[in-house]
Each structure stands twice: as structure tokens, then as C-alpha cells.
Amino acid sequence: YLAKEGRTGVELYQPDKDRNSPERLNLLGDLRRAIDNSELQLHYQPKVSLAGGAVTGVEALLRWCHPVHGPIPPSDFVPLAEQTYLMRQLTEYVIDAALEQAARWWHNGLQVQISVNISARDLLDAALPEQLEVGLTRYGLPPSAIQLEVTERILTGDQAYTQETIKALATLGVPLSLDDFGTGYSSLIRLQRLAVSEVKIDASFVRRIAESEDDDRIVRSIVDLVRSLGLRSVAEGVESDEVALRLAEMGCDLGQGWLFCQPMPAADATAWLGDRFAPAPGIEYGYQPEVT
Ligand code: C2E
Ligand code: MG
Ligand code: MG
Ligand code: MG
């Protein structure tokens, strides 16, 4: 898992191994320390308007530079953290770091919406909306300065508790984005019942629209449905001009992917955003920060 080619060459963690395997416990211990030792960093990947190339928001993606093993991708440690109480700490860290960066950008006229990935399990935590409210107030940011990306798994599991948190977020005004759409359990119809404002079409469909009629039709119908529900559509994994053009022609609102740029550290993202930022509907820009 961690030891995929070109990485450490040592097998650190396999998800199917014993819960108490030394590898798993080591990595969890390292991650616990990483949170305090600033080994974690957020990189930012823009969401680009497919119609004109303007940028309205960025997605924050977590990076871990392990002192011994080097960079460890989130797919190798987020699922591990998700099985433990560490996930809560990780999400707390990510939200704080994202709000701090949002404040830096907003107060310098770059009013981009920062999307943060959270785990379905985070929605069981009543403290999440509270943390957001406190953070937004502290930095003088409107609730739409941040957005939470969740996967369709919010539809499974403990619905009652999850619904409570989703309601609290809606009251607060923090928007939700449905990530990796198409890979999970929800039918298009169930979208309607979710309090989401954005749907991100999974890269596995997007990547193939230029080659496969079926994938083209699937993505087209998702884009149409998302639009008819009054939501914003985002295509993940846009890697070629051809795919971007097709998506634009379908009426897909935003695209993200290597065609535009990779996720970048904050300083690089600031430079990249420079003249590309554009206001987007649904975000309050005239917000008067409370003085605290
Ligand atoms: P995601 O939220 O669906 O993020 C999209 C992933 O696709 C990112 O991988 C991004 O770097 C990658 N990507 C972007 N454009 C392209 C492209 O054109 N081609 C290809 N092949 N890939 C592209 P990354 O950063 O490795 O993150 C993987 C997953 O880890 C994320 O999927 C998200 O589910 C999770 N994750 C990342 N950061 C966090 C975090 O702070 N908290 C939580 N809970 N999960 C996170
Ligand atoms: Mg995401
Ligand atoms: Mg995704
Ligand atoms: Mg994904």
C-alpha cells in the first residue's frame, strides 16, 4: 500500500492487515506527531470556469511530508485516520489552516472560496459547525468563503446524526459539495434530498468522455440534472483540451485537473490566482467583518 513502487520499498501499512499491526500503529503514531510538528501542509487546486477560464474557488488537499519516508499521499493515510479519533483532529487542523489561508487571500482582494475535504464521519460531530462558526468570526469571513466536500457515503451510516450536522451547516450558511459523484450509491434522484450546492463528477467518468460514448452520455446526463436542480457542476480530473471543450459544450460549470494546474503550495497558488480570480454567484463578497 504505502510501499507502492518508487516509494519506500518497505511495507508500512496494508488496510486488510490486523488493526493492531505494528505498521498500522506506527503510522498512526507518526500521524499524531505530524499534526503538531507541521509536517502537514495544504496544497490548493483551482476550480476553473469552463466557459472563460476564470477561477472562483480552490480545493485544499492535504500533504504529509514524513521526515523519514518522504511525501505520503492522502490516499495512504486519510483512510487510516478515518478509522480512529485522529480523523477529527486532522479535520480540525485542515479547517483551521484553510480558514487562515482564506483570510490571507480575502483581505488581499482574492476572494476565492476554499473547499475542504471532510470525511463522512466528521458529519457525526456536532462540534464541526461550531468550529466553523468560531473560525469564520475570528477571521471576519462570510460562511461562503469555505465549502465542505463530502462523498456520497453521507447517505449511508448514521443518517439522523448526520442530518443534524448538515442542518446546522445550512443554518450557518456553509455550503456542501458532493465529491466523487457517480462512484457511490446515490441515484441522481437522491441528489434532490441532499442540501448540497455543488456536485463534483468523478474523474473516472470525466477522463473517458472523449473516448467512450457511454461515459459521454453519463456525464452529459449528470450535468443536465445538476443544472436542472439549480446546482453547480464541477468536473474532476480534466487532463486534456478535448475533454475541457466537451465539458464546456455540455454546459458543465467548472473543471479541475492537470490541464489547468496541479495542486500547489499557498505561495504558488497566490501567484497563479493573481489575474484569474473572478467573483462567483452564491458567494457574499460585500461582507462586513465583525471586529473581534
Ligand atoms: P478528492 O477530494 O476527490 O481530490 C481529487 C484528487 O485528484 C486529488 O488527489 C488531486 O490531487 C487529484 N487530481 C487533481 N487533478 C487531477 C488530474 O487531472 N488527474 C489526476 N489523475 N488526478 C488529479 P490527492 O490530493 O492525492 O487526494 C486524494 C483524496 O484524498 C481526495 O480526493 C480526498 O478524498 C482525500 N483528501 C485529500 N485531502 C484531504 C483532507 O484534507 N481531508 C480529508 N478528509 N480527505 C482528504
Ligand atoms: Mg475533493
Ligand atoms: Mg473528488
Ligand atoms: Mg476522487
From TrEMBL:
Residues 24-277 form the EAL domain. Signal peptide: none annotated. Keywords: Membrane, Transmembrane, Transmembrane helix. The keyword DNA-binding does not apply. It comes from the Bacteria. This is Bifunctional diguanylate cyclase/phosphodiesterase. It comes from Nonomuraea spiralis. The lineage of its organism: Bacteria, Bacillati, Actinomycetota, Actinomycetes, Streptosporangiales.
